[in-house]
Amino acid sequence: MLDAPSHDLDRATVQKAYGGWAPIYDALCGPVFLIGRKAAVKAARQVGGKVLEIGVGTGLSFPDYDETTEVTGIDITEPMLARARRKLETGRYPHIRDIRIMDAHNLEFEDASFNVVVAQFVITLVADPERVLDEAARVLRPGGEIVLMSHLYSEQGIGAAIERWVAQRTRAIGLRPEFPFSRLVRWAETRSDIELAERRDLGPLYSLVRFRKLG
Fold first, then answer.
1. Phi and psi for 147 in degrees, rounded to 5?
2. Domains and CATH numbers, the chain
3. Rounded to the nearest 5°, which phi and psi values hold at 103?
4. Nearest of 153, 84, 173, 75 to residue 118 by alpha carbon
């Protein structure tokens, strides 16, 4: 019998896991996430203006932004942000305006503060994805976009079976391979101010999902 899909990850698990990943994160995940990362930032740059990056981590995406954007990054894992701060200290990324420890479930920003909210490889890992998306929508200006980059559950066939099996065994290291796209769609359907703008699969590892705020 196949294992059932796992539940959402809790904050303590994610903080512990990514605190441990921090020293090797760039070397290990940089090459794996390269195509997806660049696609997400390209989508953000096409909107331009003020960008909030949720789960900015070690700042892997810093070089992908440019002067068309003004980026604020947040994360809940201090060891990851410490590495991002060291990148900022080089002075090579003037478009990165601020990075802060902050929980995406309770964003400490005013309504309609950003043109784009980006979450790369994050939305499948948070304790309450719908709450995080609600907060992203709250701080987004009308006409702005939420840009998600994540691995999404295959939902059927051998790929889904493998992802369910892996999911039961990788929670402790902060991975969630069986998060369904349908859950994102259902969230958007609960809101009159959000529409799905795009889902684009970038190979078997990850998908780009864009939501637009109406108004």
1. -115, 115
2. 11-213 (3.40.50.150)
3. -90, 125
4. 75
Partners of 150 in beta bridges = 207
Q: Which of 40, 66, 50, 209 is nearest to 124 (CA)?
A: 209
95-146 pLDDT, tens digit each:
999 999 999 999 999 999 999 999 998 898 888 999 999 999 999 999 999 9
- Number of other residues whose CB lies within 10 A of the CB of residue 68: 13
Under 8 Å between Cβ of 150 and 101: no
Read off the pLDDT of residues 18-63 as tens digits, 9 standing for 90 and up: 555 566 667 767 687 788 899 999 999 999 999 999 999 999 999 9
Which pair of structure tokens corresponds to residue 5?
A: 């899909």
Which two structure tokens, joined as six digits, stand for 210? 């864009």
pTM confidence score: 0.81
Which distant-in-sequence residues (6+ apart) come within 8 Å of 9 by Cβ?
125, 126, 127, 171, 174, 176
Beta strands in the chain (DSSP E): 49-54, 69-75, 96-101, 114-120, 140-150, 194-202, 206-213
Contact 69, 49 (CB under 8 A): yes
Asked whether 43 and 119 are in contact (CB, 8 A), the reply is: no
Query: Which tokens belong to 90?
Result: 């080089």
